Amino acid sequence: MTDVPLLSRSALDRAEELRTDSAALRAGWAEALLLRVNHRGQVRLDGGELILDPATELGPEPVSGAVFLGRRDGRHLWAVRVAALSGELGDLRFVGHLFDDSSAGLLTTAIAILNWHDSAGFSAVDGAATTPTISGWSRHSTSTGHEEFPRTDPAVICLVHDGADRVLLARNGNWPERRFSVLAGFVEAGESLESCVVREIGEEVGLAVSDVRYLGSQPWPFPRSVMIGFSAVGDPDAPLAFTDGEIAEAHWFGRDEVRAALEAGDWTSDTDARLLVPGSVSIARGMLEAWAKA
Length: 294
What we know:
This protein is of the alpha+beta class. The chain folds into three domains: 6-119, Nucleoside Triphosphate Pyrophosphohydrolase, CATH 3.90.79; 120-151, no CATH class; 153-293, Nucleoside Triphosphate Pyrophosphohydrolase. Helix content is 22%, strand content 31%. The chain has six helices and 16 strands. The protein has helices at 22-29, 92-95, 101-119, 193-205, 255-264, 283-293; strands at residues 33-37, 42-46, 49-50, 53-54, 67-72, 75-81, 89-91, 130-133, 138-141, 147-148, 153-161, 166-172, 183-186, 209-220, 225-234, 247-254. Strands 11, 12, 13, 14, 15 and 16 form a six-stranded mixed sheet that branches. Strands 4-1-6-5 form a four-stranded mixed sheet, sandwiched between helices. It is globular and about 65 Å long. It is an enzyme of class 3 (hydrolase). Belongs to the Nudix hydrolase family. NudC subfamily. Residues 150-275 form the Nudix hydrolase domain. Its EC number is 3.6.1.22. This is NAD(+) diphosphatase.
């Protein structure tokens, strides 16, 4: 990796020490700013800039369901899930490249924590309803008081190359023709990240890989993951087998072809080339860009 992945950029001061300081949060509420996020993960924009509202629009003090994200320029920042939004809307996956480091970190964090709350309404331990605490950074069981914290699901993403000038790219069966990316998969219980790389590549395309190396990581709050990037070496002459049903096709592409695809844009490009690659908000593109420059 030659550049920090876009969603890993964050100048957000999380101010963790304030999450349990009710007095400080109430005092900061009068000047606090609020980010509203709908259930599709969309937010309101003004010319590509995030719209933040006065938090006091929710009430005179912090309300249950709002999540304290941190502070910026001395002002507290909160997020809340809303049923609907109007005006110019944007989805992090498509407009993340427009944001500065502060807004990128703010929105990535907001979407991840709100997605966790959406699925954590009942305790995984006793099945009882849960209520948010610590200004949105935990939930308590209403039956036993058991505390649960936000989940982040680790997933590996791997650029498989031949040690020279070819890279293996695959198309998921749900993707349109010509849209390819590097391979990825979730880490299983009791599994190291490196072991997951080897297993996932074997399951998805039937290829044995070696020389697994860490490249970088990126939060991916869809719904609440972190993508952990690796490279690995595979044999381009080995047969491929799509055994788990996820991959529709995979091919080895030359460095020049990848460079051309990067120059043409991303999956939305109107080029008729046989290869389209992910957009800049994905760590996959950063991995491909670094490999193409090597």
